Amino acid sequence: MSKVEIPDIVIGRLPLYLRALQRMVQEGRLVTSSQELGEILGISAAQIRKDLSQFGEFGKQGTGYNIEYLVDQLKKILKLDRVWDMAVIGAGDVGHALARYHGFRDRGFQVALIFDSDPEKIGSMIGDFVIQDVTNMVTSIREAGVKVAMVTTPAAYAQDVTDKLVEAGVKAILNYAPIRINAPANVRVQYIDPATHLQRMSYYLG
b/e map of 28-65 (b: 16 or more CB within 10 Å)? Predict the structure, then answer.
């Protein structure tokens, strides 16, 4: 089965498998099973086996999965056998937090560029990064070969930023702005809106 035929919901579960397996590696574990993974993640063993089978054969019945081998294979499938540079657009509170977060690299990513439109912020530092003028964003991202960006701007600016990111050659956008953005079919967009998730949970509060 070719990659384009694999449902996105399956791709979305692979990072969960990878994270659980990496924790097992840290614990010194060598072998696991779909049953154990399922109990950890709340996903049926049959679903895990079905998901993994779409990419090949990674285990044997009765012996389970070699954890390190499966970690390596999942990294290759997710193209995480390298570190991806990222651009952060918006140097507000969220942008600051993302730029200073050191956990990305262990998961295959690292912040490389930060942009903002505020003259008072441009040229200042966030950790080791100089905040660049957003008007130079297209050129800087192209020259750096960055393919991943995180948008943390106010909603009113998110679409214009997205258009420029597409022009710069970015292929994956993580959008923190509380608005849906339009991008070409070959650009992957994911959304993170903590307030919406909180409002969803508030329904269940006593």
Answer: eeeebbbebbbebeebeeeebbebbeebeebbeeeebb
Query: In this structure, are 41 and 91 located in the same domain?
Result: no
83-129 residue pLDDT tens: 999 999 999 999 999 999 989 998 999 999 999 999 999 999 998 89
**Residue linked to tokens 């993640």:** 41
Q: Please identify, among 50, 77, 104, the residue that sits at the C-terminal boundary of a domain.
A: 77
- How far is Cα 87 from Cα 95, in angstroms, rounded to an integer? 10
pTM for the model: 0.88
Can you tell me the distance from the alpha carbon of 176 to that of 35, in angstroms, rounded to the nearest whole number? 35
Distance, in Å, from the CA atom of 36 to the CA atom of 138, rounded to the nearest integer, reads 46
- DSSP helix/strand/coil, 109: strand
45 with 127, same domain: the answer is no
* Whether residue 3 has pLDDT greater than 80: no
Residue 36 lies in a domain: yes
86 — alpha (psi -120 to 50), left (phi > 0) or beta? beta
